[in-house]
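Fold these two proteins, one after the other.
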Amino acid sequence: MRINKYLATHKYASRREADKLIEAGRVYINDIPAVLGSIVKNGDTVEVKGELKTYRYFAYNKPRGIITHSPQGDERSIEDILPIQGVFPLGRLDKDSYGLIILTDDGRITDALLNPNSGHEKEYEVATLDKLPKGFKKNLEKGVDIGEYVTKPCHVEITGKRSFSITLTEGKKHQIRRMCGAFGAGVTELKRVRVLNIEIGSLKEGAHRPIQEKELKVFLESLGV
């Protein structure tokens, strides 16, 4: 296994950050300085000298009308309005949706959280234009054909004649809107309220708070870090 992949797999750093550690002469294989492209074999001893980077994690309530990233034209992204420098959003929320986004500078956890095979929970509150049709909860929970793809089983709680909460373990593009659309229920409001154990709580739109202590420990342990 290449040394940068080894370091990323063992959660020392992302591959890009691992390359920087190697170039800085801080990585050793069997007491010999590693170079870019070095191979780690079974039984080898790998050591990273010096302090590892301290990462930052934030819960952020993305406002409506803001693009997660890569804005076009006169659109604004999270980066344009965020007072924190050097962090990036994990995952996306479309322009018309709002709610919880995890912000971090820890590239190690990107795949662990977003990989569709990881099965990590994300919870949303949804309001619809029309009344929810009969059998809506059952039909959503068993999986919905949204066009060449059938969604995985999920958990739904009906909270009103035109509202419900849904917990997914995947995240296809516009998935909830497409799932509702399959039953003629147009979405008027979509808010993400939880990612794993991180909850949005009373966080106002556009506001952020640090994720730390026990909350952070549980979050990282869920991701295998």
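Now the second one:
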Amino acid sequence: MPELSLHGSLSVGVPGELAALAMASARFGRLPLSQLLENAASLADRGFPIGKSYAGRLAIAARELASLTNAAAGRPLQGNLEFVEFRRLFLPLDGSEPQPNTWLRQPELGRTYRDIAAGGTAWFYKGPFANLATKALRQSGGLLSRSDFSRYEAKLRAPLRTTYRGSELIGFPPPSSGGVHVAEILNILEEFDLSSMDPESADFIHLVTEAMKLAFADRAHWLGDPDFTRVPRALVSKDYAQHLARKIRMDRASPVPKHGNPPQAGSDWFGKHTTHFSTADSAGNWVACTATVNTTFGSKVVVPGTGVVLNNQMDDFAAQPGVPNGFGLVGAKANAIASGKRPLSSMSPTIVLRDGRPILAVGAAGGPTIISQTLLAILRTVDFGQSPSQALAGVRFHHQWQPDQLLIEKRAGEPIISTLRQRGHNVAVVDNLGATQAVGWNSTEGGFTGAADPRSEGTAIGW
């Protein structure tokens, strides 16, 4: 039953964000984590009016839960039990759809933040929260245990460093596929004169799409947790990219029947609901941070009394070779489920440097489109000299190899969409694609420029 990896207790993996933020705070922060959590707790207590987008996502979640409840008769301990807390906290009591400007307060989440501030991460991973979470999950058919929580630790991995047209990129290493495949696609495109093209043209979209297809085919076969599988370093080599670039034709879409074979794949390997924010400060610190519970509201399981929504990261594993997950992505043995293993991700937080100085911190939300969104923002910055706001406003498109479909925003216009179809692309038109956030350095005026995605609600602050 494919929905089991998307909704409910079996879809939950050990939450890792707190461990990562605690490590970042201890190693690089100026303020103690306890103080930062108090600010978050105050916001949870005070609440905020939900926007149109947030209300729409809650309405979709409500319809999904209604469908699951109706289909749950044959699933022992599933159905209403595990979703009671989500309904209580996020959905109207009268069963109506959530409306924009409804005030959302989360005092239970505020108490959880204060408990973590007082007891540290041990309260969460080895104490009361772990006890509450595993009890709730087991009661509704989940498999996570207290030892799963207590054994979890954040890992500080060496960043992926690559270059593109004289700029240096610092990206996310495996088990995220984002850093690897943003770099792989950029390496392929480095073989072409992009700056001679209009970034909104059919030629540009066709070329970048063909490079995406080649990289996503590699993702499906090669990528996984490097602690468990051998991920070839040559995926990001310039020589391999040149080999792949020769497969691209400008006059038509080329079939990509399977993954490529990077050199030394058998001997040289990498070492053992999404939100993105990008920020920088006057001290020279730049941050690109992506956090996720996977799909909207994750598993929709809330640990009773805590306000904590649990993820559905198990859907990021390949349940079976070639079987698509909730985003339509296929995987292979490299991303198969195993105890203690981290699932493959598309997160692509990236910092771009020119002459050793950061000029862009960027990342996105939107499942596998995170990779294509981040890629397009980098291309529009490096190849076309666009500001962060210009780069984020451009037409977005995405191809992930399987299914063989080019998603493109309707703002591209019918003439370009028609041209792409004539070249053999199976085009699907969408209103909007993803949400990217970026901060850049304005060398002319000597200040930071923040850019929030114009497709979503929110603003960015620059100085």
